[in-house]
Amino acid sequence: xxxxxxxxxxxxxxxxxxxxxxxxxxxxxxxxxxxxxxxxxxxxxxxxxxxxxxxxxxxxxxxxxxxxxxxxxxxxxxxxxxxxxxxxxxxxxxxxxxxxxxxxxxxxxxxxxxxxxxxxxxxxxxxxxxxxxxxxxxxxxxxxxxxxxxxxxxxxxxxxxxxxxxxxxxxxxxxxxxxxxxxxxxxxxxxxxxxxxxxxxxxxxxxxxxxxxxxxxxxxxxxxxxxxxxxxxxxxxxxxxxxxxxxxxxxxxxxxxxxxxxxxxxxxxxxxxxxxxxxxxxxxxxxxxxxxxxxxxxxxxxxxxxxxxxxxxxxxxxxxxxxxxxx
Length: 327
Hints:
4-stranded mixed β-sheet; 5-stranded parallel β-sheet; 16 helices; alpha/beta; Rossmann fold; 2 domains; about 45% helix; CBS-domain; about 325 residues; 12 strands; single chain
């Protein structure tokens, strides 16, 4: 390794040159979004099995990411290591599958050893290489070229621009299939239930609302003092006023209390019906929690009733949203 002077070496210039080289490589990639790309998408779109991705070395790492992107965007896929495939894992591949093989040179020995078996099983092959005339390129049912002018590595050895190009091509395939399938944000959430997006798109108000004895509630005959005691007991900053059948008549909140103090209302003598807000904002239990949160923010309220028409079913507070990870 040739020594260099740390005082004069410019890491920033080198970093920017890498970005420039890879950007130029991606610009060249545009020409390969062509009929072969379309044929590959159609093959995967009509696939009744799964998409199986294989690659060795850096191509394998990119292949794992490609398979993960397919799987999370509506195209069932998984990665199989070519070396393990030669020792039993090829049994994971069925005739209904489409196999994507990745190799920059198109001459990966581990992959070439698998192609005769895959052909014997009549499995359709999509190969991504930089050389259409390579062994893999010629063996493919569809070949997608991912050739780049040069690697960002000054030695031209470390896979840099070439692996970026393959990753971008994989993203292009996945997104094209996503749009063709009409894949939605809710579909995405179903494959990401543990993430923040999943919580936002799958959680309903009914999943987090307070019900039964947890609901702060008083009858229309209650005094204001009774209502204040109920607000304190239930600790949600409000109480609902209902009839004997839990039909909503109104709502009273901490904010209302501050306003009646300004009006000089006698807390010990007033009836709750004298100071409540008639009706009140309510949401249905099937509403997405994130939509209920947006409503609460728009209305500048911290708690909302959950109801079926005028029938009180529960209440949900901003703190419930926080605890559920919706915010």
